Amino acid sequence: MHLTVASIPSTSFLFSVSSIICSFGNDSSPGNFNESRRFKLILWSIVGATRGGPNRARILNLLITDSLNSHQIAKKLNLDHKTIRHHLKILTKNELIIKSSESYGATYTLTDIMKQNVELLKEIVTKMNGN
Amino acid sequence: MVIDMTEMFDYTFAAVLFAFVNIILLGILITTYAQNLRIIRSYFTIGMVFVAAMLLIQNLMIIGFWSTLYMESSEFMKTVDMVSHYMFMINLVQTVGLGILVWITRR
After folding, report:
1. How far is A61 from chain B (nearest CA, A)?
2. Predicted ipTM?
3. Domain segments of chain B as ranges
4. Interface contact B101-A10, CB threshold 8 A
5. Domain A9-26+33-126 is of which CATH architecture?
C-alpha cells in the first residue's frame, strides 16, 4: 500500500530520506520499502510534531473500536466540532482514517494500514498523560 | 556614475537579522514541541525539543558573537565581513526551512 502525505509536504521529503536510511541494514530491495518504519514516521510526525497531535492520537484511539462521525467524536472528546473536522481532514489526507461516504454524518474508520499498526498507536496512547 | 549595490548591502547585519527571525521561529517550534512533550513522553518528542534547542543555541551564538567579538574587534570584523555572504545565505536558507516547519507544525 502506498502512503501519501498531501497535508505535510516536507514529510514526503523525510520519507525519501528515511526510506534510504531504512533500506540500509536490511534485506529489502530498493522498491520494497519498509512500510512499517515509514508508517511509524508518519504517525509520530502527525502525533508528536504538530500542534494538534495529541488530539489526533485521541481521535485515532476512539476509532480503534468504533466507527464514529465528526459530531460523535467532538462530543466524546469534548472538543469544538470545527477543530475535530480539521483533524479528520488531516488524518484522512494522510490515509490514517477513511470516510465511509460523502453524505452528511458519514462515519470514519481506520484505514487498513492503520489497523495493521494499531499496536504502535496504542503504544503512543499509553505514553500520553491523562488519556 | 556606477554604484556597486553589493557594497551597499550589509550582509553581516542581514545575517544577524535572519538569526533573530530564526530565534522567533524556533521559539514557536519549541513551545509546540514542549506542549506535546508534556502530554506524550517519548524519545521522538524529546528529540524534537532537543534538535530545536540546539538550533536555538546556534542562532543565539551568532547574535552573541556579533554583539561582542564583531563589534569590539576590528580584526575579527574584517574576517567576518569576508565570509558574510555565506553567513547570510546559510541563515536565509535556515529561515526558509524553519518557516516551512512552523507552517507544518501549526497546521
Report:
1. 14
2. 0.73
3. 13-106
4. yes
5. Orthogonal Bundle (1.10)
